[in-house]
Amino acid sequence: MRASGLVVTRGGNEILHGLDLALAPGSITGLLGPSGCGKTTLMRSIVGVQRYSGELEVLGAAPGSKPLRGRIGYLTQEASVYPNLTARQNTAYFARLAGPRARGVDEVLAEVGIADIADRPVSTFSGGQRNRVSLACALVVAPELLVLDEPTVGLDPVTREDLWAAFRRIAEGGTTILVSSHVMDEAFRCDGVLLMREGRILAEATASELLASTGVERLDDAFLTIIRQAESAEGAGAATIAGAATSKETKR
Ligand SMILES: Nc1ncnc2c1ncn2[C@@H]1O[C@H](COP(=O)(O)OP(=O)(O)OP(=O)(O)O)[C@@H](O)[C@H]1O
């Protein structure tokens, strides 16, 4: 996946201001940044449900184009499942749509930790359980690109740990994963991190590089440091982050 000068306008306001980024095949990239900075908007552009200008290439094609259907898994923040169907029926439905490339339904239900309640209607599930049904539907199509908008929100540490192990296994199988999160420590699970603020990418680095470049011990503090640096550099030109973190935005 590759973007160059990606601009998105929503409701008359420019939300993404010319992003340049690339995701390596089989890698896990964390998308982090304050609420409202544009993470979902970037994800929507990549999966093909958002108008944009600039260049965007996903698995060698234009986002939303026919060849990409079935090759991308997208988990939105709101569970996209049929409440009157069971978890198994929901997952089986998406497996049917995917055709021969689909993974086994049981395997995926176990992977997201809902095998034991798979035969209950989703309407009886908690919010976290419902989100995991949604995740199962995204995973069962064996996507080449998996875009996950806050997949671990509201989950307990054990389930969170299991899901991250599953994401790593899926990436090792060649799937490229872009995952947004508000939990800064989840950045350590990723091969690289994109730190966004106000529709721009402030830093692109590994979690360890972010710590090293800011000289702090906690990732929360590293992000705050980078955001403050960017704020104080604003008006004086692009923010330059010490060390490995670099500003890759295109000025417009
Ligand atoms: N349909 C819309 N019309 C106008 N503005 C919108 C629309 N949808 C989103 N926005 C604005 O675009 C900006 C980016 O929103 P987006 O949902 O991409 O942020 P986010 O980083 O994913 O936030 P969060 O972490 O809270 O989910 C926000 O300021 C939001 O208010």
What do you see in this structure?
The chain is an alpha/beta fold and 252 residues long. It has a domain at 1-64 and 145-151 and 181-239: 3-Layer(aba) Sandwich (Rossmann fold), CATH 3.40.50.300. Helices cover 32% and strands 22% of the residues. The chain has seven helices and nine strands, in the order βββαββαααβαβββαα. The protein has helices at 39-47, 87-98, 105-111, 127-139, 157-172, 207-214, 219-233, and strands at residues 2-10, 13-22, 28-32, 53-57, 72-75, 145-149, 176-181, 192-197, 200-205. The strands form two sheets. It has a six-stranded mixed β-sheet with strand order 5-6-7-3-8-9, with helices on both faces. Strand 8 and strand 9 form a beta hairpin. Helix 2 (87-98) packs across helix 3, helix 2 (87-98) runs parallel beside helix 4 and helix 6 packs across helix 7. Bound molecules: adenosine-5'-triphosphate (ATP).
In spatial order, strands of the major sheet run: 5-6-7-3-8-9
Share of helical residues: 25-40%
Q: What is the subunit organization of this protein?
A: single chain
- Which consecutive residue ranges, at least 5 long each, have pLDDT under 50? 238-252
Query: Per CATH, what is the topology of the domain at 1-64 and 145-151 and 181-239?
Result: Rossmann fold
Radius of gyration based on Cα positions: 18 Å
* Binned strand content: 15-25%
What ligands are attached or bound here? adenosine-5'-triphosphate
What is the CATH domain class of the domain at 1-64 and 145-151 and 181-239?
Alpha Beta
The CA-CA distance between the termini, in Å, is 22 Å
| Form type | globular
Helix/strand order:
EEEHEEHHHEHEEEHH
